[in-house]
Automatic annotation (TrEMBL), chain A:
<comment type="function">
    <text>Catalyzes the rearrangement of 1-deoxy-D-xylulose 5-phosphate (DXP) to produce the thiazole phosphate moiety of thiamine. Sulfur is provided by the thiocarboxylate moiety of the carrier protein ThiS. In vitro, sulfur can be provided by H(2)S.</text>
</comment>
<dbReference type="Pfam" id="PF05690">
    <property type="entry name" value="ThiG"/>
</dbReference>
<comment type="pathway">
    <text>Cofactor biosynthesis; thiamine diphosphate biosynthesis.</text>
</comment>
<protein>
    <recommendedName>
        <fullName>Thiazole synthase</fullName>
        <ecNumber>2.8.1.10</ecNumber>
    </recommendedName>
</protein>
<comment type="similarity">
    <text>Belongs to the ThiG family.</text>
</comment>
<feature type="binding site">
    <location>
        <position position="161"/>
    </location>
    <ligand>
        <name>1-deoxy-D-xylulose 5-phosphate</name>
    </ligand>
</feature>
<keyword id="KW-0704">Schiff base</keyword>
<feature type="binding site">
    <location>
        <begin position="210"/>
        <end position="211"/>
    </location>
    <ligand>
        <name>1-deoxy-D-xylulose 5-phosphate</name>
    </ligand>
</feature>
<feature type="domain" description="Thiazole synthase ThiG">
    <location>
        <begin position="8"/>
        <end position="253"/>
    </location>
</feature>
From TrEMBL, chain B:
<dbReference type="InterPro" id="IPR003749">
    <property type="entry name" value="ThiS/MoaD-like"/>
</dbReference>
<protein>
    <submittedName>
        <fullName>Sulfur carrier protein</fullName>
    </submittedName>
</protein>
<dbReference type="Pfam" id="PF02597">
    <property type="entry name" value="ThiS"/>
</dbReference>
<dbReference type="InterPro" id="IPR010035">
    <property type="entry name" value="Thi_S"/>
</dbReference>
<dbReference type="InterPro" id="IPR016155">
    <property type="entry name" value="Mopterin_synth/thiamin_S_b"/>
</dbReference>
<dbReference type="InterPro" id="IPR012675">
    <property type="entry name" value="Beta-grasp_dom_sf"/>
</dbReference>
Length: 262, 64
C-alpha cells in the first residue's frame, strides 16, 4: 500500500483532487450546485473586458461565496506579452500569486505553445508567481518546466473541450515516472469519469476539468460522478494494481479439480 | 483627442487614467492595462494618457 499524501500545490495542501472550472454552466445556480457536488476546493476563473456580456461583479460574488481557493487562468492568450500582462492583472484582481498559465500555440486544437510557455513561465516565476502551466504531454517540456522551478505541471489529456480522455497514456505515465515528486494534474480533454479515474490510477495527483461537467445533461449529477471516479482512482493507485500479464492465469485453484484430464 | 477603450474608439475627456476609467463607469473589482502593459491600481492616478492609447479594463468572468 502506498502512503496517502495530500494534494500539495506550492506548499498548500488539499484533500480533494478535483479542480473545477466555472464556465459553460446552464446557469449560475447550476454552477454553484455542481461545484458543491464535486466537492472541489479549487475553482478556476478568468478576466475579460468589463463591458463584455460575461463579465460582472455578480459572478465574482458567487465565486467568493463558495469560499474556495481561486485559480485564475490566462485563457485565450497567444503571446508571452499577453500572458504576462494578464497574469499580473489577475494577481491584482484575485489577490493571489497562483496562475494557471495557458498560452495557446495553435488555434485549431488550442495546443499550448511549448516554447513560448517556457519563456513566460520563467518571467512569471521570477516575478514571484506560482505558475501552474497548462502544457502538452511532452516529457522533455515537463522536465524543462520543472527545472525552471515549477512545483506543479498540468499536461493535457486531450485538446480543450474535446472530451476524448487520455489520448496518450504512455506519455502521461512516462511523465509520472520521470518526475516522481512533482505535483501532476491532468488538465483538459476529459469527458467521462472513467478518464479522471484513469489519470488518478496512474498516479496523477489531481484532474482539472470544466466542460465534462458543465456540458453534461445534468451537470450536478456528473459532478458527483467525477468526484466518485477521482476517489476510486486515487484509492486504486494507493492500493497498487496487480501486474499485467500476457498469459491467462486461473484464479480458481486447479488442485482437487474433478474429472481432471480424464 | 481619441483613445481606444476596451476595443472601441472613444473621446479622451481627461488625460488622467484613474479619472478616465471612473468616467467610463469602472466597477470593482477590475484591473487596467494601457497599450498591453499592466498598470497597477496604485499607479492609475499618476498615469497620463495620450492620443491613440489603448486602455483595457478587465473584470472577473467564468473560466475553465
Amino acid at each position: 500500500m502506498r502512503e496517502n499524501t495530500p494534494l500539495t500545490i506550492y506548499g498548500e495542501t488539499f484533500s480533494n483532487r478535483l479542480l473545477i472550472g466555472s464556465a459553460l454552466y446552464p446557469s449560475p445556480k447550476i454552477m454553484q450546485e455542481s461545484i458543491v457536488a464535486a466537492g472541489s476546493e479549487i475553482v478556476t476563473v478568468s478576466l475579460r473586458r468589463q463591458n463584455s456580456v460575461a463579465a460582472g461583479e455578480d459572478f465574482w460574488q458567487l465565486i467568493k461565496d463558495t469560499g474556495l481557493t481561486v485559480l485564475p487562468n490566462t485563457a485565450g492568450c497567444h503571446s508571452v506579452k499577453e500572458v504576462v500582462t494578464l497574469a499580473k492583472m489577475c494577481r491584482e484582481v484575485f489577490v493571489t500569486d497562483w496562475i494557471k498559465l495557458e498560452l495557446i500555440g495553435d488555434e485549431y486544437n488550442l495546443q499550448p505553445d511549448p516554447i513560448a510557455l517556457l519563456e513566460a513561465t520563467e518571467i512569471l516565476l521570477n516575478d514571484g508567481f506560482k505558475v501552474l502551466p497548462y502544457c502538452t504531454d511532452d516529457l522533455v517540456l515537463c522536465q524543462r518546466l520543472a527545472a525552471l522551478g515549477c512545483e506543479v505541471l498540468m499536461p493535457w489529456g486531450a485538446p480543450i473541450g474535446t472530451g476524448k480522455g487520455l489520448l496518450n497514456p504512455y506519455n502521461l505515465k512516462t511523465i509520472r515516472e520521470r518526475l516522481p515528486d512533482m505535483t501532476l494534474i491532468v488538465d483538459a480533454g476529459l469527458g467521462l469519469p472513467s478518464h479522471a479515474c484513469q489519470a488518478l490510477e496512474m498516479g496523477y495527483d489531481a484532474v482539472l476539468l470544466n466542460s465534462a461537467i458543465a456540458g453534461a445533461g445534468c451537470p450536478v449529477s456528473m459532478a458527483k460522478a467525477f468526484s466518485h471516479a477521482v476517489s476510486a482512482g486515487r484509492s486504486a493507485y494507493l492500493a497498487q494494481a496487480m501486474p499485467e500479464k500476457e498469459v491467462a492465469a486461473p484464479s480458481t485453484p486447479t488442485m482437487g479439480m474433478p474429472f481432471w484430464h480424464q | 483627442m481619441k483613445v481606444v477603450f476596451n476595443g472601441e474608439m472613444t473621446q479622451l475627456n481627461t488625460p488622467n487614467l484613474r479619472e478616465f476609467i471612473l468616467g467610463k463607469g469602472a466597477k470593482e473589482p477590475f484591473a487596467v492595462a494601457v497599450n498591453g502593459e499592466f498598470v497597477p491600481r496604485s499607479h492609475c492616478a499618476e498615469m497620463v494618457l495620450k492620443a491613440g492609447d489603448s486602455i483595457d479594463l478587465l473584470s472577473p468572468i467564468q473560466g475553465g
